[in-house]
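Data availability excerpt. The first of two example chains:
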Amino acid sequence: MTRKEPTGDSPEVAPLERSAPIASRDVEAVPDQAVYLDSPVLSAVNQIRPFFESGAYGKSDTPLLLRHSALIRMQRLFSRLPTDLDVRPVKGRNGSRFPLRPGGVLFYPFNSLSNLQTVANRSFRHVLTLHGESNKSASMRPASRMYDYVSIAGPLARDRYLDAGIFTASDVDQGRLVMMGDTFVQSMPWIKPTRITDTAPVIFYSPTWEGYGSEADNYSSVVGMRGFMAVLKAARALDLHRVVVKPHPYLGMLRPAMVREFISGIRLLRRSGLQVSVAMRHASLQLKFGCHTQLSRLSTIEEDDSAPVAVALALCDISGMEAIFLKQRIRHVVLVRESDVPKGLETIYNRKSIMSHQDPETAVMDYLDGAEDIDAAHRKMVFGWQNPELEGVSASSARRWLIDYVRRDPFWSQAKSI
């Protein structure tokens, strides 16, 4: 069986038959793995930087191929690229000039439009990793079918794809979806779960951004200051006085009203007597400008890995932050609209979410009474492993296993034999 070209409006965008490796005079100097990044904002580099830090992408052997557009070139006039990453600007649409060895593996942390042209280059193997694990609708796009393999965190992501009809049970059984646990879930070493010895734990609030598209794609609790009200009530319930707010890097980029509501929320918390610090390092330029010009005596916090902040309770929206908190074993509740409760997580969310009709104080206290068991059940649903031996290994070891797996090409090898 050969791979078919997509036709019409079908969600199937199957990879074409792979071409044979091409001999190269400089093949030994060319890397055999790379990350391809196409984003309208340069700050997207910061979103995937933690994966280079963890070893999920290799700093020394995995260049970051940054798609250069007019918008990115303009942003580079005002922002610097990381000097410790091997960032290589690329212009081609089909990867024909990419600095990657034939037969190499190309990772995709974003499901961008130009990826459609890039995967057409069959000299490489193409693997969608995304940049976290999220229950947002954007995490299960039909375009995922155009990649050779899709890395997923575990059973929950697998079931999302199956329920949406994007992949089939046969795809799963034959290994096209590859469960990699928390390998491609970001770590945030500058926060940690509270211990008994911590004297000044905080409430940590991490609202997501407004999203592309319709209101249905806007999962942010900044709207109507719903999240800030929940933070205030949770702080009172736990008798805590310090709050750290970390906005999503894109918050306020598309809707100026989000910046205004964010600022109003910070003012609400401060008027209520809470000590509020905002993690602004990776915030959008719009949010930074608004906060610095409209908030007097704005307190910011350095994301210092050497002095992590002790988090007594985190509040987040449906976003990749859920998996981060699960990975780092930080107790957290999810701010969610009833219509957005993910399929398969109804039981979990009934015990660890704050819905619009609920009293935040009651919801928080009920969750904390059984947090250990609730989070253990949640973690088991989110994280799983294609090979049980991968659990507990380093991110770099998991990446090497994934590269070997993709090179063996188990799914497409079986497909060809049918």
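And the second chain:
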Amino acid sequence: MPATSALRRTFAVIAALPLLTLAACGYGSQAEKDDTAKVAAGAKKTDGLDTVRIGYFGNLTHGTALVGFQKGFFQKELGATQVKPAIFNAGPSEIEALNSGSIDIGWIGPSPAINGYTKSDGKSLKIIGGSASGGVKLVVNPEKIKSLKDVKGKKIATPQLGNTQDVAFLNWASDQGWKVDAQSGKGDVTVVRTDNKITPDAYKSGSVDGAWVPEPTASKLVAAGAKVLLDEASLWPDKKFVITNIIVRQGFLKEHPKAVEAVLKAAVESNKWINANPDEAKAAANKQLETDSGKALPAAVIDPAWKSIQFTDDPLAATLNTEAEHAVKAGLLEKPNLKGIYDLTLLNEVLKAEGASAVGDAGLGS
């Protein structure tokens, strides 16, 4: 098989590979029920559903979901329908859970959303809203790397082959004129695919010289002595790019639009509260992380990390299309047809009711 075909095949199947998650249930861990998520007296079930299952990562870039659960916004909007969280470590396992019906709605990065959509010929999911921009940095060992040109010849960690940050780093390296074999990670710079939970230890041991990673991993590395060399936001127009989307299983969207609308209302409410109360929102997100993982982030990590993330209802659709082009350029994806990946109808209805402006799909809507 030619090298390019092998790379594309690798990227194409990655969404189907079950990865290690935080629980033994197969897809994501079930977080403890939050005492703040009370069901109002007399509340009725939404769309007749007993439960709605929502997936997300234990990343600050998924802060909308973290705050939404911690503050009880999801439960409030769903009434007597119980909201159940499932926490994931990586996009492919969340896509698998969505496809199998183990979750209904999820917060996820652009690359797995693109891959899940294209691999299913446009039948598995829809992006129904935005959530966050930014929160991704290139952090390095300042003793080994003092400037961007010094990255050449070094070992840089990314979370996973073909994931959002992996594609971004490969594209940036290419723009520097460096050649890297995307599948093996070998070339003018060595890409070391490393789980975000392991990356800080890999940095401390000297196994990697830096990392292109999302928050809070970037700030964990800085707390360990690393230096921020580049904020990915600086590479994008208006310093905005999609890092987290809201996706839904298409069958669930068709059968239970009221439940989807309720989750979107909660997401919009969460983002509004986050932006109006940044310090309280940071504390709420950290408390939810503690509930989910048993450990909160120290101030030295969460304070700088939280500042670098923008929470937005806008899915920043044009940047998703650009990120897909970067994956094609790297040889990790055949040129995809993303027409129909977005359905922002319900989100724009929610925004209109809130007196907010509608958001666009960059021509990639249903």
